[in-house]
Amino acid sequence: MSNCNNCTTKYSDYFSDELYTWCTACGNYGIHAAVKRALVAENVAPKDTLLCFDVGCHGNGSDKIGGYAVHGLHGRIIAFASGAAMANQNIEVIAFGGDGGTLSEGIGHLVHAVRSNYNMTFILHNNRNYGLTTGQASTTTPQDTPMHASPDGVTATVINPVDFVLSLEPTFVARSFSGYVPHMTEVIRAGMRHTGFSFIEILQDCPTYNKATPHEWYMERVYDVTKDSHYDRFSLADARRVASISNDKIATGVLFQNLNKKDFLSKQLNRKAYTTQLVDEVQKSSVDEFTQAFR
Ligand code: SF4
Ligand code: MG
């Protein structure tokens, strides 16, 4: 599976003894497989990995995969993960959030992570509903779709996550579909290699509650726009042109990348002289020094 000759990380290194609890044919299975494959292909050992899970169906996979893992508060995982990524840049930090938590109470964290350009990867599990709480409408549920707690549908307009993030001057935006593990793997690998905030939307199958756009609906529409030689992934205009999720087709792949904007820590002038990691510096300090004056 690995593309490098000296790779020592194996797929089995990321196995867990815990049993999955997701519904049959849930897209989370494919996403977990792709994340493991990406980590192995990039030769990142579990000891060097921090996987940060928000609350939601996807979050219930936090103990079903190897590596260090955190299961956070609803909508707040980006804040936690960005702090961890800054504390130790030698760790591969990947955070996961659902459309519910990320685009409602967590949307402020998403906005500021994109504009700050924290060096981490964020994977949005967009199953277009609150699956863990039995299928309520989220900000990505198609308008007027009957859902639990809103049998007549919700009238509020839908947020397109890719279009929204593209409006924030991001440095990496990608989209994939949970039905294509090899494609997700390559997109996640590209996100991991990018220095800055990598936003990856995965259109995720939820056969239990997302009846409006089921697996077959996606299969008929998704295509990799980057296979088109005229598509320029460094062009924001190109990305915005293909961002919409229409009834005809849905563009996937690395839709946009900006290699000219530095990540957050690289821009901090007061860090220029440091070769150490923040986490090491904290360990050398004693809180006592700072509290002496108040004793
Ligand atoms: Fe997956 Fe949907 Fe079941 Fe949640 S409710 S485990 S997202 S299929
Ligand atoms: Mg959801």
UniProtKB/TrEMBL annotation:
This is 2-oxoacid:ferredoxin oxidoreductase subunit beta. InterPro entries: 2-oxoacid:Fd_oxidoreductase (IPR051457), PFO_beta_C (IPR032686), THDP-binding (IPR029061), TPP_enzyme_TPP-bd (IPR011766). It holds the Pfam family TPP_enzyme_C. It comes from the Bacteria. The keyword Oxidoreductase applies. Residues 54-202 form the Thiamine pyrophosphate enzyme TPP-binding domain. One of its GO terms (biological process) is cellular respiration. Gene3D superfamilies: 3.40.50.970. The keyword Oxidoreductase applies. GO terms for molecular function: oxidoreductase activity, acting on the aldehyde or oxo group of donors, iron-sulfur protein as acceptor; thiamine pyrophosphate binding. Keywords: Oxidoreductase. Residues 206-264 form the Pyruvate ferredoxin oxidoreductase beta subunit C-terminal domain.
